[in-house]
Design brief:
Layout: E1 6-12, H1 17-32, E2 41-47, H2 53-64, H3 70-82, E3 84-88, H4 94-110, E4 118-124, H5 131-141, E5 151-157, H6 164-175, E6 183-186, H7 193-196, H8 198-203, E7 217-225, H9 234-259, H10 268-280, E8 290-295, E9 313-319, E10 329-335, E11 342-349, E12 366-372, E13 376-384, E14 392-400, H11 401-404, H12 413-423, H13 432-450, E15 456-459, H14 467-475
Parallel strand pairs: 1-2, 1-4, 2-3, 4-5, 5-6, 7-10, 8-15
Antiparallel strand pairs: 7-11, 8-9, 9-10, 11-12, 12-13, 13-14
Helix pairs in contact: 1-2, 1-12, 4-5, 6-13, 9-10, 9-13, 10-13
The chain binds 6-O-phosphono-beta-D-glucopyranose.
Length: 484
């Protein structure tokens, strides 16, 4: 990061939930760890509510530190808060954005930015309906056209549209204003440690190279569960549902990294090219390979219609029609109000041919990558039960990050991704054609759900979801192992 330039980070939607819970805390942690240079950086909040700088600082303060580390971080916290300025205004008026531009420019001048170059990072912590007007205002009022060597980057959050058509429309609107290299579509799962580890694991280990295909792998499961419901977000959630909220983006991105071919290099474009190919090879989802659920009590939320069919749980099987994966089911499963909070990838291997130990009923080889909580990777394998008898037992080779990397604290996904945006690295962001291909996979199913052609089955909060989902897994060839 160059020393003589200014960096302005502008959080639009500064008083909203995402900004308070994710964006500002990530910025503070980066600052605390020295990744944001206090001589360069300034942070601006923009939203409709009228507030003073101090009122915004007071609003977000409690999200930045917890009681445990408050005193240790007190000094950096107060310095960080002093960097934050607030501008209020509507999302579609020149007046507000001109005032914002003025505030940013004053900061840039105060930093005596050499050669007039300025770096402006606009983080849209906003609903997608306002992306187009906001991007237009940024372009018209807040970009310095004569600036050489500076940049303007736009970070947008999901949901990027509701289906293929609306997503494409949104992409064209934003794409008409900013170049693809300026648009950073965040999927925060791509910032998680073990998701980022996926390419290393697959392509830097001889173990896996020859095994990672249809000859050896029986099925792949990518699972997300949360042990709480849609509390306080019923209105948003009912419009989107679990497929748009989790599967079409987070789990599908993970699937890409599990299934893609080796990129020719680590350049962001090479990696994203391979991800697109995977998405384009997915064949249309069949209704008989889908189980939807809705937890009992979901409709008690006053913002949710009484007859809502919106799924809060879904299991869908995706099939990739290429040489490596034909015939291997990729099971994507996500649910709210489940018995536990967990996200993992489970690669289940085929049975050993000619099993002389007759041990396969005990379970297959399985490689599990636990994304959260407690990051870990473990391999389930069959060993001899220690002792005089020749008995076999399923055991584990276990790499638990807490034990192995005791002194390393694992960064929050948002911290990493914001830092990538400042560096201009788009590897962990979703490209426009990726987004399109992702919507192509799910749009027909989503439309059938909306027409009521695929129904959500009720399930008890705290359960594993509808039993039909386990039956579907079994039909797809997943062999249930003990305790899972
Ligand atoms: C968000 C979804 O994208 O991801 C939420 O909108 C969900 O519904 C969240 O709770 C889960 O993120 P994480 O990082 O806690 O697994």
């Amino acid at each position: 990061v160059s020393e003589s330039r200014s960096l302005s980070i502008i959080v639009l939607g500064a008083t909203g939930d995402l900004a308070k819970k994710k964006t500002f805390p990530a910025l503070f942690n980066l600052y605390h760890q020295g990744f944001l240079n206090p001589d360069e950086v300034h942070i601006f909040g923009y939203a409709r509510t009228k507030l003073s700088d101090q009122e915004l600082r007071d609003k977000i303060r409690r999200y930045l530190v917890d009681e445990k580390n408050a005193s240790e971080k007190a000094e950096t916290l107060s310095k960080f808060l002093q960097l934050i300025k607030y501008v209020s205004g509507p999302y579609d008026s020149e007046d507000g954005f001109k005032r914002l531009d003025k505030a940013i420019s004053e900061h840039e001048i105060s930093k005596k930015s050499s050669q007039g170059s300025s770096r402006r990072l606009f983080y849209l912590a906003l609903p997608p309906s306002v992306y187009p007007p906001v991007c237009k205002m940024i372009k018209e009022c807040c970009t310095n056209k004569s600036d050489v060597g500076g940049w303007t980057r736009i970070v947008v959050e999901k949901p990027f549209g509701k289906d293929l058509e609306s997503a494409e429309q949104l992409s064209s609107q934003i794409g008409g204003l900013f170049d693809e290299t300026q648009i950073y579509r965040i999927d925060h799962y791509l910032g998680k440690e073990l998701v980022q580890n996926m390419l290393v694991l697959r392509f830097a280990n001889r173990f896996f190279l020859p095994l990672w295909n249809r000859d050896n792998i029986a099925n792949v499961q990518i699972v997300f569960r949360e042990d709480f419901g849609t509390e306080g977000r019923g209105g948003y959630f009912d419009e989107y549902g679990i497929i748009r909220d989790i599967i079409q983006n987070h789990l599908l991105q993970v699937l890409c990294l599990v299934a893609m071919e080796k990129p020719i290099s680590l350049k962001p474009e090479h990696i994203r090219d391979e991800k697109v190919k995977v998405l384009q090879s997915v064949i249309p989802i069949k209704d008989k390979e889908v189980v939807l659920g809705q937890y009992e009590g979901y409709r008690d939320d006053p913002t949710v219609p009484n007859d809502s069919n919106t799924p809060t749980f879904a299991t869908t099987i995706l099939r990739i029609d290429n040489e490596r994966w034909e015939g291997v089911p990729f099971i994507l499963k996500a649910g709210k109000a489940m018995g536990s909070k967990k996200a993992d990838i489970r690669i289940q291997f085929k049975d050993v041919p000619g099993d002389i130990f007759k041990c396969q009923k005990q379970g297959r080889n399985e490689f599990v990558i636990r994304l959260q909580p407690s990051e870990a990777m473990y391999m389930k394998l069959t060993v001899k039960q220690p002792g005089l008898e020749m008995q076999t037992v399923q055991s584990e080779l276990d790499l638990s990050y807490k034990q192995r990397y005791q002194d390393v604290s694992i960064p929050e996904a948002y911290e990493r991704l914001i830092l990538d945006t400042i560096k201009g690295d788009q590897q962990h962001f979703v490209r426009r054609d990726e987004l399109k291909a992702a919507w192509e996979i799910f749009t027909p199913l989503l439309h059938r759900i909306e027409k009521g052609e695929v129904k959500s089955i009720p399930y008890k909060p705290g359960s594993r979801g509808p039993t039909e989902a386990d039956q579907l897994l079994e039909k797809a060839g997943y062999l249930q192992t003990h305790g899972y």
